[in-house]
Structures are given as structure tokens and as C-alpha cells.
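User: Hey, quick favor. My workstation is busy. Could you predict this chain's structure for me?
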Amino acid sequence: MDGTNQTAVTEFIFLGFSSVLYLRLTLFVIFLTVYLLSLMGNTLIIFIVLMDVALQTPMYIFLGNLSFLEIWYTTATVPKLLATCLAQVVTISVFGCITQYYFFFSMGATECILLAVMAYDRYLAICSPLRYSLLMSLRVCLQFSAGSWIGGFIAPLLPTILISHLSFCGPQKINHFFCDSDPIFKLSCSDTFLVEALGYTCTSVVILSSFLLTMFSYGYIVVTIIKLSSQKAQRKAFSTCASHLTVVTIYYGTIIFAYVRPPAKYNFTIGKVISVFYCVVTPLVNPLIYTLRNKDVKKAFRKILTRKRLLLTRKMQ
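Assistant: No problem, here it is.
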């Protein structure tokens, strides 16, 4: 783009989904409900894992990390989404936009790595049960958790630094509800080839490598389960990883479609719709899957409720 005789932009305007008031208000109610349920569900999982000693094992420590991540992952984008539903003009500063970009992609990368680590944990538990406690000790579990967060926040650092050096001189309207990569590049009057190529490479490497590691882990898991002689043992082994596999399918299905493709193929309308799934819907689906399908979590929740009732009864007496 030629930046000659153009005024430097200091803030962007989100276009959101619609200019029709009743449709925006309907979307606001839906998105707010899903967002609040997501916060409650993920907070509940963290609370249950912290309160029940029996759940303080690597599998549930990783789950607690995932729930904590989902809270901030959805919070990075949904408040602005809700604002675009209430007001026709919602702005964000250039610095705020780049900051949102960094945290969104940092937490997205962290989730990819964390899901791969969780798959590896299930691989060890099913394929090497006798050595599991040695290979996945509490110390190793915490190291994997910390590594997921550190790796996730390092991954988009260089693209973010390059984006911060781009010039923006109009138009200032972002055809989205958050600062995604392609809408930002479209608004720049600088040469974005290098940062686009680097950003595309980074996201593709993180997504595909973590996805392949996850699939390799589940490939070995499936082979091990098939070799089990007892159908009961097969069902039990599969049930321990069914919830995680469901989450992986939903999450990777949307982000691969959204980000593992040439930048020129980006469609803003489709991009916004797909973004709703991994920004709004997936953070709610995760706690529902893990609580509804996981007997240990449901059992721990009932134990906590029972203890609370007993405490209340004693206080009343």
C-alpha cells in the first residue's frame, strides 16, 4: 500500500457482525450467556481439582491448566465482541490491538502445546502403565505445564514485534470482532510480506506439530487398546482419553481451517464465523465434556457438595 499523503492511524474500529440492532442484541444475549457459562464451568473445574486431593494427579493438573487457560483465552476476545453487539462504533488503540493479538495467539499456542502434552500423558498412562508414575511424576508434570505456557508465549513474540513496527494509515476499520492477523495486515500501509510469511509459518508449525504429536500419541493408544484381551479393559482405557480426544477434534478442526492456509485465501465473513467457535464455543464445550463424561470429576464434585452440606448443618446446629 502507498502511504503517501495519508494520516497515521492511532486507533481501529471493529465492524463486528451486523448493523441491525435487534440482531446485535440477540447475539449479545447469546454470546454473554455462553461466556458466563464458560467462565463458571472452567472455574468450577479448577476449584474441584484444587479441593480434591484425589484429583491432584498429572491428568487433572493438566486439566486445571487447560481450564485456567480457557478463562483467559476467551476473555482476550469476547469483551470486545460483546461491545460490538451493543454499540455501532467500538474502537481499540493500535497498541491495544497489537497487545490483544499477542495474548490471543500466545494462549492459542499454549493450548496447542498443552493438548499435545495431555495426549502424551494419556499415552504413558495406557501404553506404559507400570512406568507411568516414574515417567510422569509430579515434578515432570509441573515442568510440562510450565513449558507449555513458556513455549506458547514465546511462539508469537517475533511476529508481534514485527507487527508493532508496521505503519497504519487507513482505512481504520477492522472487519472482525478482535485483532486477528489477516485483518491487521490488510490495514497496514507497510510491506507486510515478511511478517505475514513469518506469522503464517509460526502458526502452522505450532498447530501442525502439536496436532501431529497428539495424533501419534493416540495412534499408539489405539494400537495398545486393540491388543487388550478384555473388552472391559478396552472400554476403561478408551474412556480415560475419550474426553480429551473430543476436545482435540473440536479445537483443531476449527483452528486448522482458520490458520493453516495461504493468507490470500482468507475470507473475512467465514473467518469471523469460524472465530466464534474457537473463541466462544470451544471454551464452554471443554468443561462440559470433561465434567459430563468424567466419573472422577463428578464424584469429586459430589464429595465437595456433601462436605459443604455437612458444614452448613453443623453451623446451624
